[in-house]
């Protein structure tokens, strides 16, 4: 069984460091034969961090070899970013700092999974901290800007780990993780915490944890999934799962962070990128994936983005049966108006006849 179908039928389950995901328990009893078959598929399709599935040219792992090195430039950093033996600190717990780190090699994988070991911590209490971390898969790299230390109107994918609510009227609970796909035409609105351009999101309490915190991003055949491991239970928890996402190959992975009047330490401990072994149709193989425009099958307009405390939106795309219902309601409305008009006209005619 291929890794892709096996993943989705069994779920991600417990997290295993260095691996692109391990399954949880299946539905029902498992015989010894089933267990052996599953074990064989794990050995064949899911491999550890020392195997060919871990793409080291796109991974940031201790002791951080090739970071900022002219002899082996795998990663470049700028701004306030500080490299230590234990972590890459994008910003210190100081005001008005911006920093980022970017992979030097463009990624030409069509299906991938990224694990990020990170830590956000500081001395600020309650809401007196900010702003957060952004994870990127974008066309341009090393371009500073106002969006968590990187450029606005970007091309590609962004995952925002936001720790401060700029919009005081929001019902969301922070810290909050959200996803945005951009073809360069959209601008991230900090005053609304990116609500107008967000595809999906979830509340995630990752700040000032005493244990390790992890985030996983998977992209395969148009499906984008974000999972978290924040409870020190060695298990992935679902955060975001959306389909219809279009991302080209040849873009760059990166991470950035920014602080304003409030601050935090924003640390990246590791970034591990895994190749997913997924079969594609001949038509998909003939596509020039470098020419794909970033986008989603249906982008909601800002007026559709009604806040929901669960982190999702109540409104959805006007497709299929919703369009049919709207047309049916409109048709019924026209019929009702016509009938009422005919009745009123007939009564007026009868009243006029009485005067002759």
UniProtKB/TrEMBL annotation:
InterPro entries: ConA-like_dom_sf, Intracellular_Lectin-GPT, Lectin_leg, VIP36_lectin. It is a single-pass type I membrane protein. PROSITE patterns: L_LECTIN_LIKE. Keywords: Disulfide bond, Glycoprotein, Golgi apparatus, Lectin, Membrane, Metal-binding, Signal, Transmembrane, Transmembrane helix. The keyword Ribonucleoprotein does not apply. GO terms for cellular component: COPII-coated ER to Golgi transport vesicle; endoplasmic reticulum membrane; endoplasmic reticulum-Golgi intermediate compartment; Golgi membrane. It is found in: Golgi apparatus membrane. GO terms for biological process: endoplasmic reticulum to Golgi vesicle-mediated transport. Residues 1-44 form the signal peptide. The chain crosses the membrane at residues 323-345. SUPFAM superfamilies: Concanavalin A-like lectins/glucanases (SSF49899). It comes from the Eukaryota. This is Vesicular integral-membrane protein VIP36. It comes from Sciurus carolinensis (Eastern gray squirrel).
